[in-house]
Amino acid sequence: MTARRPRARFDDGSAVVEFVVVVPVLLLVVLAVIQIGLALHVRATLVSAAAEGARVAAVSGGDGAAGVRRTREILDSTLAAGVVEAVTARAVVIGGISTVDVEIDARLPLVGLLGPEALVVHGHALVES
Q1: Any domain includes 91
Q2: How far is Cα 102 from Cα 87, in angstroms, rounded to an integer?
Q3: 108-120 pLDDT tens trace
């Protein structure tokens, strides 16, 4: 009786190659999803804080300092330090109606190297007398 030689398998090591090809693409997709989620969270927080600051300024008779103070309080408790660069409030008359405009200049924290770095949001409210 003669001993049979095992057949050569041509797919030996293919799992390693597939892993090396798929993992960088999968990692890129995961980082992109995290980046988009983080950017949306930061933007929503900034918009909410700007709107709240504008409402506080409007209720206090158009006092921009009160609106800036309230906006800073909200942002200091919700976002990391260094994200917000500037908060300004100013009185604006639109169509004969007095409003308060709170503007926030911020930097987006980036997970990767791609994406917008600067973000400017506005909050508006009618001045109550």
Answers
A1: yes
A2: 7
A3: 877 665 667 789 9
3 state DSSP class of 49: helix
> Which of 76, 64, 63, 129 lies closest to 102, judged by CA?
64
Burial 68-78 (b: 16+ CB within 10 A, else e): bebbeebbeee
pLDDT of residue 7: 64
pLDDT along the chain (129 residues), means of 10: 66 81 93 87 94 94 92 92 91 91 90 74 90
Side chain identity at 67, as an amino acid letter?
G
Query: CATH code at 50?
Result: 3.30.1300
Within a domain: 96: yes
Is residue 103 within 8 A of residue 124, CB to CB? The reply is: no
Residue 62: domain span? 14-126
